[in-house]
# Entry
Amino acid sequence: MSITDLLAKYDRNVPRYTSYPTAPHFSPAITGTHYAGWLATLAGETPISLYLHVPFCASLCLFCACHTTVVHHTQPLISYGATLQTEIARVATAIGRRLPVRHIHWGGGTPTALPPDTMRAVMTSLRRHFDVLPQAEIAVEVDPRTLSDSSLLALNEMGVTRASLGVQDFDPRVQRAIHRLQNYAVTSDCAVRLRFAGVRSLNLDLIYGLPYQTAAGVADTLRQALRIEPDRVAVFGYAHVPWMKKHQALLPADALPGPAERFAQRAMVDRMLTAAGYTAIGLDHFARPDDALAIAAANARLKRNFQGYTTDDAAVLLGLGASSIGSLPQGYVQNLPSVPAWRDAVRAGNLPVARGIALTSEDRLRRAVIETLMCQNAVDLSAVAAQHGADPASLMDAAPALQMLQRDGLISWDGMQVTVTAAGRPFVRAVAAAFDTWLERGNGRHTAAV
# Structure
């Protein structure tokens, strides 16, 4: 089957599977009371991870689908940091013990939009209420255009070990269309400064499928990106969701690449980065062979969470800040997305949960199958079912979709072993969707699979 035919058949809207069930299926039936109960059951030796969401930026990028807003004054940022510290204390109180922390991820928005003293204070609060282990990874997302020297010093004092630099594309025409002007020199200089400040690992975040992008233009961006010598590169397909993010409607829709051009851009990324010595990780990540992410993938220990592919195998991820999502053995919880509503809930003494979902045994089984497929491009259904005390036959509702995927050369399947082929790797989300019993319940809109 030709690429054109495969795209026509499989490039449908499916989740990115950073969770299962996915966020559109979360319900307000799960409240802060449920969350408090879940937190109280965590054992004292349970290693956890923390995600802090900072929903502020200096300017609005039109492609962005994150929960963020533009601020031009420091007072809202200082206030947000103070409320964040209150939430940290409230979550720790609900747990009732000081748990060990192996990973901390600051995401956004732009976390470094917070004043340096505010970032330091939040980090101090984390260390006060949790046992941040000496070997913990502390990661932060950075906008190279706005990273000040004082913020850089704060990152050093906070012990940040990894930084992700947003790039997207270096083509000026693309940058003008998406309202993000950022030349190579600014990005390269930021990388040099971060390394000088002691940040050991650098990621670059790129996007394909943006207005006016071409395969040749993406190749040019990659050539420049490789000069920075990143440890990891994440290359995401642009998610056009103007029904969720109204500002995306300001993008020139007629300049968005079609499915075939998007696929060509993705293929160009794969060829160039693997030729440069990077290991392809899952759907959209690449890492140097000696990087922890590549090592985890080689040892079948790669994981996937709301930040994408990760080495973090903690069973508990606590979300802090407006709109953040947490994952616990019992299920998922998401904070109120509106900063004022989140702030008011925290100040009122509540855990600011807006919605969530409690996991069933079937959800856990299918989550494990889907995560294994997304991370390893293969899954032994019998082995996963055995780990969950389940009958692998319960997964055979996927059989019709798997038969079709096999006929089209995207997987090999012998009944219990599903392996994504090289041709099928760009379509791995469509393969994972074969096991998603929530997908047809019509409770959410997703983005194209490729």
